[in-house]
Amino acid sequence: MIPMYPYYGYESRCRQVPITFPPQHQNVQPGLEYLMYPVPISDNPQYKGSGKLAGKIAIITGGDSGIGRAVAIGFAKEGADIAIVYLYERVDAEATKRMVESYGRRCLMIEGDLRQPAFSAEAVRRTLECYGKLDVLILNQGVQFPQASILDISDEQLENTYRTNIFPLFYMTKAALPYLSPGSSIISTASVTAYAGAPLLVDYSSTKGAIVSFTRSLSLQLVDKGIRVNAVAPGPIWTPLIVSSYSAEYVRTFGVNTPMKRAGQPFELAPTYIYLASEDSSFVTGQVLHVNGGIMTET
To answer: How many domains does the chain have?
Structure first.
């Protein structure tokens, strides 16, 4: 049995966050947050909303856990109602729904496979049926399958990685765009690996590079419509994707090679998404904001 919190040591404004993690591995991606130890920190109780997103409606793909859950909570604190799209992680999604509702906002759960083009249209349709409009689209779903050699990346893995990480950005944007209006925002989750590379994640990193190019190009296409398009590039963040893709031994020291000597927690990214979705970033489009513990990147 793992002793309680032997790895905690960094004191943040929010609460203690772990420096290292107990070895653990889950066999199915994208992973289940409720099975992780310690559970990722999704909510910063010191963060007080000020109505930055009051009355807004947001779809968050991958919103059941990890970064998506933290964004859903942060958006709720700022006054938005949420639709979370997830693959199969219903227990995690229900927990996110309870957290959003605890801040007085509504949360619609939409379960399905974003690799299928028709499901994106369904997700947007259900959101509109529930809330009547759409203001913010957060594209946050993803998988990764580490391989030591490109020779080990099967055709099936390559297609799955691209079909999960990049194709839904096109599917969801095409489904949502007719309902977005001036002032709306599209925000994708890229990665530090798009800039720094990752020897174990050649296919994953290349999808994240595609997200950067997608963001820059789509922002130019939509700027005249008053719709802003940006992205966030996280560094190593403690989420279910980590324990479901890396070995237990790798997890033990996950994130310690950053300049801050630790992995980030999901709550530490939420304010960046809030900024990009709000009027605070009214002169920001086509940009990628880096939240990575100090890793130097060429932008």
So the answer is: 1
